[in-house]
Amino acid sequence: MAEVFLHLELDNRGIKAKIIKQNHKQTIIKNQCHVLYKDLPDVKSGTKKKIDTFETGVNIIAGELDLEPCSEAIIFVSDLLISFRNLELPFKSQKKIEQVLPFELETHLPGTDETYISDFHILDSADDSNLILSASIAESLVEKIFLKLAEYTIVPKIITPLGYAAAIGFLSESSKLKEPEKLSDFAFLHATDYEITLVLIKKRKPCAIRTIPNHNISSDNLAVMVEQTIIGFNQRTGKNTFFDTIVCMDEDTHNADQISNAFETNLAARFEPGIKLDSNTMLLNIAPEKAVKYLFNFCRGKYAASSFFKTYVSNIAVSAILLLCALTILMVGVGFDNKKLEGKIAQLDNKAFLIFKTTFPEKTKIYDPYLQMKANVKSFMEKSGTLKNSGSLTEKNDLKIVEIIGELSGKIDDSTDMDISRFLFNKDRLVLSGSTDNFNNVDRIKSKIESSQVFKAVNISSAAADKKGNRVKFKFIIEM
């Protein structure tokens, strides 16, 4: 099953973004873009308002690329933002190293007010010590990445140094080769327009890292940097290790010729000609669900993908409770409004009942005071001659009661379970009350009556189960 994820490369100059689709057979770059901070609208316009270039850059990427299929991301950060350290500790326990490492690194990390997230690898074991390679990053940067990508429902699974990750990607890829063909000791140089990272691999384990800014560094200076790093490592270990050289860079790196020249010319007398690799290919060996040995990952602790839900479960629970409270308040408010309206309707009905009873004391059975009062007033008007009526039941046609009953009987067949308890007609309105065996029949009876050309509109005034619960009482208001 194919997996789609977001691939970001961050440095102080900008952000490279790729949408990666990967399955067990192939890796495809579906889309990509490169945002340079110097080209951001607010930066270009020279505005004095301070902007967060990372947040603005991600917003631009979200506008250019379709991030909706991406739920996970891999973030490659500049190696210049990472503090790499080699340490020796007098024990081998992973748990003890995790406990002691923050104290060991405390004096080596820049910024006293900054909190750091560290990861490490045990590289070599001896009887009395362990060689540790560690990497540390400011927690504020990790938090910023998590919070910004959360706006697009994307969770970072891996946050790792860029150049070092390329070296580990090559190490992982070359592990598929047969043993005689594998490189065991090599110097891996990863170069971008912004920085150059040198990773020394000994016995297929990363053992030293050096990163410098790439400000048009000359091939001579680069050669010296590589040589000094290797000599320093050999002096520290007391061994004269020979390293093969590997150069890895993007095809569009501006000073690619100078970097190649440093290996092919300046270092040719001391090292074998180097292998040239494409940076994109090496980085594509890193995937969210793919375990890669010796890869640093700063998604640790509360930022670990496996514990992310557990870390923020309290926030999620609070949000759910607040939502539930809001819905409860809304429903209670609607309930109170309905109660007030029902109270007002009851008051009006009671007033109408009292008026009817006062006006017509001889009427002992009162069903609907409004319609009954209207019918009685009309009756008195007809008797007094105020209202002339030809005997028809409506002014609009000459239908008589028998004809109306016949129309109703024709529309409601004998198979329908329906008992009529009240039939009240007044001018152009008919009140029909009765009972049936279920609520569905109420709707069927209404539909059948509506199909008649005689009746203008049919409204269900009420429908409710009787006290025994085996019948449904209804009342229709039928407009003629």
Structural class: alpha+beta
User: Any idea of the CATH topology of the largest domain?
Assistant: Nucleotidyltransferase, domain 5
Instruction: Based on the coordinates given, report the CATH architecture of the largest domain.
Output: 2-Layer Sandwich
Give the domain tally.
2
Strand order of the largest sheet: 3-2-1-4-8
What oligomeric arrangement do these chains adopt? Answer: single chain
> How would you sum up the global shape?
rod-shaped
Low-confidence stretches: 388-396
SS summary, helix count: 13
Beta-strand percent range: 25-35%
**Biggest sheet, open or closed, and with what strands and sense?**
5 strands, mixed
Number of β-strand runs:
17
Rg, alpha carbons: 42 Å
Would you kindly provide a written description of the structure presented here, covering whatever features stand out?
The chain is α+β, with helices and mostly antiparallel strands and 480 residues long. The chain has 2 domains: 3-311, 2-Layer Sandwich (Nucleotidyltransferase, domain 5); 385-479, Gyrase A, domain 2. Helix content is 37%, strand content 28%. It has helices at 41-44, 53-64, 94-105, 139-150, 162-174, 219-237, 256-266, 279-283, 308-311, 313-359, 369-384, 401-411, 439-450; strands at 3-10, 14-22, 27-36, 72-77, 83-89, 116-125, 130-138, 155-161, 186-191, 195-202, 205-213, 244-249, 275-278, 419-426, 429-436, 457-465, 472-479. A 5-stranded mixed beta sheet has the order 3-2-1-4-8. Strands 11-10-9-12-13 form a 5-stranded mixed beta sheet, sandwiched between helices. Helix 6 (219-237) crosses helix 7 (256-266) and helix 10 runs parallel beside helix 11 (369-384). The longest helix has 47 residues, at 313-359. The two termini are 65 Å apart. Mean pLDDT is 81; it is low at 388-396.
